[in-house]
Amino acid sequence: MNASRPTVSLLLLASVTWCGCKSAPQPTQEADSDPTAILDAPIPASQRRAPTASLTEAMMLLPETPQKPSIDIDAKDSDWKGKKFRRFNTKSSLQDGAQYWSGKKDAAMRVAVDADEGFLYVFIEVDDDRVLPTPAGQDPTDGVVLWLRDPGLDALGTALPSNVGLDEYVDAETAILFLPNGRVEAFGGRDELDFNSIMQHETVSSKSGYTIEAALKLEAFEEISSLPLAEIAFRVDLLDGDDADRPGHQTLLSSTPDRGADAPRMATFVAGGLLPHVPVGAPPPRSNAIGRWKVEDGKWNFVSFEVIPRIWATLEDTEAFETALKEADTMKDLCGVARKDVHLVEAYQSRGGKFRTGLVLCGERAVKGKCASSAESNVFVVTLEPNDDSWRVVKAINVFDKPSKQCTYDPVKDEPFYAHLSFYPLDVLSANVWVVGWTRTHTTREEVSEAYGLTMLNTEYDVPHLGTTLTRETKLTASERTISTSSVYLTYVDKDDSVDICQVEDFVDQACSGFDRGCVTYEHGRTILTHIQMWSAKKLRFERYELSKHPGCTSAFDFSDARGYLFLQLKNRIGLLPSPRSNDGSDTEKLDLF
User: Fold this and answer.
1) Cα 414 from chain centre
2) pLDDT value, residue 17
3) CA torsion, points 14, 18, 24, 30, in degrees to nearest 10?
């Protein structure tokens, strides 16, 4: 055998549905004869639920945070020339008290938002023909409330079912009240905030009302999903009271008024990367771990929501992996590198350092932003082994059953487009089991759809594809919208020793006035469905349960009292949330998730 041309196992996968769980769940021995075959350096059981990695190189290379705002905080708009302002001065912006509102001189506002690496900037110009003070100890009469939150945490909240009971951990929202006299205070919730430390602000009165300008640090957010913070969700509410004898405000005008449960209440601003002003303490266990950052004892610390892989660790230095991909003749044949780009999406190394596995995307390039109709892309799970002082490819498994008609990062017109790939080891099942996350969008003249999907594989099986399922799907037409959100559990549905899937789907059917506009849920338009896949020890895959119901998986499935895990899928990340009963083999010891 030519040593420069290693033998590689190439496997194309058939599309199947899947699943399966136990306290520290493992398939039956028939399914995997040696589930810890590459457990060359496992993490001690006592450490598996807490971050153990040292600060990664990427985290240590966070740019230095600017300590001074780049604009003068003086409540003047001279630094805001060319910035986009929005005016809120019509009835369409009224949230409450329309009967008290006499027009745009009574209560209106002009709002702009901007950011740099060090600060979030807010400029609010208020029109109010009668500004009243707020008596001590009473609800505010006149003022502005700025609401802040991280959309990344909202995405995590969407991925969690209501019966998990974690809403309080991912529904963090900061509300800051600016009074016309220049005083600033917490608007409910965070009384402990030191406003002098988290922002600079100025309020100036005028003949027509008052103007507020503020520069807020990242520490103004109660908690966030990632560092640096790339996106910011915000809302500005204007409170107006014109009756001195009546406590509190009478009119509430909002930048995003509440129009019912189907309408969003926050606008999103792309900040580009807001950096911390206080030190970073406990880091995440992997570069894209699912959890939250929170300021504790003067430091930003990361608290993981997910199971920390016990066999695999995120590979930060991927140069050797990428070199192995370039030198492997088989990858050249598979990817057709003369016409395609090869991208290492994500990679892991066993904690003993003897094995590496990565997710690789091979795709054709778009030319001048256009993707040819003949373009094709493939996704592979690639395994490496040491080869003297380097690494060599020993296996490449195709994640999908056929190539996608698309360029690497650009769609072909009218064809489904796969993006936001992610990769995660399911070593709670076996050292060789992986899950690949993806999104699929498909836009035609008649319909727009977006789906979030998971595909599981066992790299040691002759037919490695264990199955695929969707965690979320939205379909839009000019007159209807359907939204499906599924909680996908690895748990024990039947009484054998093999894990199964219990999938609880929340399906909503809505009528719309246009594409993704004016959508309201039909009467009886919400349905809870269950889908079950059982592990087949004979076929070594998960197979759909043919009957419509099973007592082990119902619409009222109680995750808090189950043995197993919940898949967490965000747009570009996957993780596993352990149930309180799943604590390294013990059903009696409660797992401290936080």
Assistant:
1) 27
2) 27
3) -60
Radius of gyration of the chain (CA): 27
**Cα gap 80→159, rounded to integer Å:** 38
- Residue 560, CA distances (Å) to 165, 530, 549, 557, 591 in order: 8, 18, 21, 9, 10
DSSP 3-state assignment of 331?
helix
Other Cβ atoms less than 10 A from the Cβ of 59: the count is 16
Buried b (16+ CB within 10 A) or exposed e, 77-91: eebbeeeeeeebbee
Q: What is the reported pTM?
A: 0.76
- For 547, counting Cβ atoms within 10 Å of its Cβ (0-12 exposed, 13-18 middle, 19+ buried), the class is exposed
Q: Which of 156, 159, 129 is nearest to 142 (CA)?
A: 129
Instruction: Name the percent of the chain in helix, strand, coil, to the closest 5.
Output: 10, 40, 50
Q: Quick: pLDDT tens for 434-489.
A: 999 999 999 999 999 999 999 999 999 999 999 899 999 999 999 999 999 999 99
Residue with tokens 């500005």: 236
Q: Report the distance separating Cα 392 and Cα 397, nearest Å.
A: 15
| 236 three-class SS | strand
| CB distance 515 to 507 below 8 Å | no
Q: For residue range 334-343, what is the model confidence (pLDDT) as tens digits?
A: 887 556 788 9
Question: CA-to-CA distance for 101 and 171, rounded, in angstroms?
Answer: 32
Structure confidence at residue 263 as a pLDDT band (50, 70, 90): low
Q: Which amino acid is at 362?
A: C
**Which stretches of 388-432 are assigned E, i.e. beta strand?**
390-398, 417-425
- On whether the CB atoms of residues 498 and 535 are closer than 8 A, the answer is yes
Report phi then psi at 32, rounded to 5.
Answer: -155, 105
Structure token digits, residue 20: 């399966």
CA–CA separation, 466 and 448 (whole Å)? 29
Using the predicted structure, report yes or no on whether residue 56 has a pLDDT greater than 90: no
State how far the Cα of 223 lies from the Cα of 242, in Å rounded to an integer.
36
| Region of 551 on the Ramachandran plot (φ > 0 left; ψ -120 to 50 alpha; else beta) | alpha
Contact 457, 399 (CB under 8 A): yes
Least confident of 112-116, 160-164, 308-312, 420-424: 160-164
Cβ 16 vs Cβ 542: under 8 Å: yes
For 519-529, the pLDDT digits (tens) are 999 999 999 99
Q: Sign of torsion, CA 67 68 70 76?
A: positive
Decide: 425 and 434 in contact? Cβ < 8 Å. yes
Chain mean position to CA 121: 25
Q: Compute the C-alpha angle 225/283/593, nearest 5°.
A: 65
- The secondary structure element, H or E, covering residue 378 is strand 377-387
Angstrom distance (rounded) from CA 551 to CA 555: 10
What is the average per-residue pLDDT within 171-200?
Answer: 85
Six token digits for residue 449: 């759809």
